Amino acid sequence: MGENFLNGSIPKGLFILPHLSQKLLLDGNKFTDNIPDEIGKLQQLSKIDFSHNSLSDKIAPKIIQCKLLTYVDLSRNQLFDEIPKEITGMHILNYLNVSHNHLIRSIPTSATSIQSLTFVDFSYNNLSSLVPGTDQFSYFNYTSFLANVDLCGPYLGEGGVG
User: Fold this and answer.
1) Are 62 and 39 spatial neighbours (Cβ–Cβ below 8 Å)?
2) Which fold has domain 7-152?
3) Which alpha helices (H) appear in 4-152, and where do they start and end?
4) Sorting pLDDT into bands at 50, 70 and 90, what band is 137?
5) Is 67 helix (H, G, I), strand (E, B) or coil?
6) Any idea what DSSP says for residue 100?
7) Closest Cα to residue 56, out of 90, 128, 4, 8?
8) Residue that wins the pLDDT comparison between 139 and 122
9) What is the arrangement of strands in the sheet containing 126-130, beginning at the earlier edge strand?
10) Whether 58 contacts 36, CB under 8 Å
11) Which of the residue ranges 17-31, 38-52, 61-75, 120-134 would you say has the lowest mean pLDDT?
12) Coil, strand or helix: which one is 72?
């Protein structure tokens, strides 16, 4: 259902479809409002791509109930507030892109415990504080954190990445 210019809220009925199993690709539409809590019912999902929409509100903490997720792309929306600490419960996640939103505060330090992460992009948000520099995060370079003026860390260079 990607790139079809669908608009309005993401239909909650979508989350009870019996044949929706591994991928939910809603990228490139014009969805607004929030990511419904019903997303937690899709426990067999391995890939979620909601990028390039106009989703607003917080990142739904219920997303972590999808224990088989390996790929999450929420980039280029209007999401705000903090990155939920619950995200660290996604133990097999290897791709996380939340760039180009309005996320604030710090990157949860517990996110470094997601050993399967091979790609992250937190760039172009309003994040602040110290970027975790241990465990998996020691493999990511400054491009994963660009345009967050108040972020700093050992591998981001002088003055952060703003």
Assistant:
1) yes
2) 3.80.10
3) none
4) confident
5) coil
6) S
7) 8
8) 122
9) 56-57, 78-81, 102-105, 126-130, 150-152
10) no
11) 17-31
12) strand
Whether residue 91 contacts residue 68, with contact meaning beta carbons closer than 8 Å, is answered with no
Residue with token string 């465990």: 135
- pTM strictly above 0.85: yes
Q: Which two tokens stand for residue 112?
A: 């470094």
Residue type, 13: G
- Give yes or no for a contact between 118 and 142, defined as CB atoms under 8 angstroms apart: no
State how far the Cα of 91 lies from the Cα of 136, in Å rounded to an integer. Answer: 12
Q: What is the pLDDT of residue 7?
A: 84
In the chain, domain spans = 7-152
Tokens at 44, concatenated: 């067999």
Nearest Cα residue to 114 out of 77, 161, 67: 67
